[in-house]
Amino acid sequence: MTKEVPNEIPAGGSYQVVDPLTKVLCMATSLEGLVRRVGQVRSAMGAHTGTDLRAEVESWLCRDYPQDCVPVDVAKPRKRSRLLLSDVVHGTQAMIARFISGHSVPREEAERRAQICMKCPLNTVFDKPCTGVCGTLLEIAMLASGRQGTQYDRYLHSCSICGCFLQAAIWCDLESQCKGVTPTMVAQFATLDYCWKKCG
User: Fold this and answer.
1) Which portions of the chain are predicted below pLDDT 50?
2) Would you list the DSSP string of 50-111?
3) Residue among 38, 89, 57, 75 nearest 161 (CA)
4) Which residue among 7, 11, 142, 164 is least enclosed by CB atoms within 10 Å?
5) What pLDDT, on a 0 to 100 scale, did the predictor assign at position 113?
């Protein structure tokens, strides 16, 4: 059993945490703002951002602000009540960074995966402050697919388990993708009989 932060706005009005990786104090008035700030600092310092930066930040907050957290069973996949753009960008960038040196799957396999993902209850629409899907994510998807895309792209959003943008994820070989998932994600994927993203 672990804990997560159910609300965007902290009970005390703001968060202040030190990122263990960069040793930089990050402050924000919302969970989304803190995740974004930590990501910006890591990017500026050339530090590695994992697939689930939000989970990292939540673990620090639950250590320092236990009153803002609730217990959850991480072994059970669940659809996030709110998936933020920063979650999707971080998850997808972590996957693509490993994919660049890997290989794209054949179109037939990408189409098969897309059919599975579009019907999955964990295919989650995420907040888009830009119009439609932001250019950064579309460019990542185009890079992954070799500018092909699939006939199901308009139905693909983001995976609630790993946060990856599905239009990109379906094209990436499993070896590249599995290097970026956490043990908790592996356990959650394993409970879904139909899922193609089996790691381990």
Assistant:
1) 1, 98, 101, 131-132
2) -TTHHHHHHHHHHHH-GGG-EEE-TTS----S-B-HHHHHHHHHHHHHHHTTS-BPPHHHHH
3) 75
4) 11
5) 95
